[in-house]
Write a structure and sequence with these properties.
By secondary structure, the chain is an all-alpha fold. The termini are far apart. The protein contains ten helices and no strands. 62% of the residues lie in helices and 0% in strands. The protein has a single domain, classed as Hypothetical protein af1432. Helix 4 runs antiparallel to helix 5. Bound molecules: adenosine-5'-diphosphate and nickel (II) ion (NI). Adenosine-5'-diphosphate binds next to helix 7 and helix 9. The site of adenosine-5'-diphosphate has 15 residues, from helix 7 and helix 9.
């Protein structure tokens, strides 16, 4: 379904709002992450027959409510709710977008599954941006931002963790692959998401294999 002029106006205003909110972030939630997730969400929505307006809007706004950028998750959601209301976004659309954003984050794998196709699309798009070449880049950027090492062979990856352990304990960029990134392939919701995840997963596996070879000076000439 094509968007009308009013709906295109909402998207344009959301774009400006999110850009202002996130353009100074260097923790991996920067503006270009939003641009990539939005592009993936629109592509997957088209392939899966999901509502593009809802997917695009939720993709644009999904990190504005992030707990890392707000006092807590609820106040972040409240901020987005108010923005949607003051910009005249239809209440039906507003509720759908808010419900997607409320359930988006990985949280160490502790959130319930998405109950709408649009939510599944946007969640797949966000997760795909943590995988593949982009995902590798973001992981090392995040570790640098946190002051973590890229690798410490004496620090074993954590097997099971609570939400706050996932967020708070020190880890390394390399451990983040087994703690989260290599699990994402099996968590994809949609068929398009699964197909894109397949290649991105292989890219990460190849990268890790080469990383460990180089670490041990066992790489081929
Ligand atoms: P989201 O909430 O969307 O899952 P996060 O804030 O957890 O995103 O992560 C932002 C980016 O940083 C992602 O690419 C993620 O994989 C990466 N990241 C998150 N935690 C760590 C960590 N402990 N070490 C390295 N990279 C991480
Ligand atoms: Ni995100």
């Amino acid at each position: 379904m094509k968007m009308n002029e009013e709906q295109r106006g909402w998207i344009e205003r959301a774009e400006q709002y999110v850009h202002e909110e996130l353009c100074r972030d260097s923790s991996g939630h920067d503006w270009w992450h939003i641009v990539r997730v939005r592009r993936l969400a629109v592509r997957i929505a088209g392939e899966e027959g999901a509502d593009v307006l809802i997917c695009e809007m939720a993709a644009l706004l999904h990190d504005v409510a992030d707990a890392k950028l707000n006092p807590d998750h609820d106040s972040g959601l409240h901020k987005v709710a108010q923005w949607l209301e003051s910009n005249g976004v239809d209440s039906k659309i507003r509720d759908k977008v808010l419900s997607i954003i409320a359930n988006m984050s990985y949280n160490g794998g502790h959130n319930p599954p998405m109950d709408s196709l649009e939510g599944q699309v946007v969640q797949d798009a966000d997760r795909l941006d943590a995988m593949g070449a982009i995902g590798i880049g973001r992981t090392f950027a995040y570790a640098g931002w946190k002051g973590h090492l890229m690798h410490d062979p004496n620090l074993a990856p954590r097997e099971a963790m609570t939400e706050s352990e996932y967020r708070q304990q020190t880890s390394t960029a390399i451990n983040h692959f087994s703690e989260k990134l290599l699990k994402l392939k099996t968590l994809m919701n949609t068929n398009s998401g699964k197909q894109l995840a397949h290649k991105r997963h292989l890219v990460m596996e190849e990268f890790l294999e080469q990383f460990h070879k180089e670490w041990n000076a066992e790489d081929d000439e």
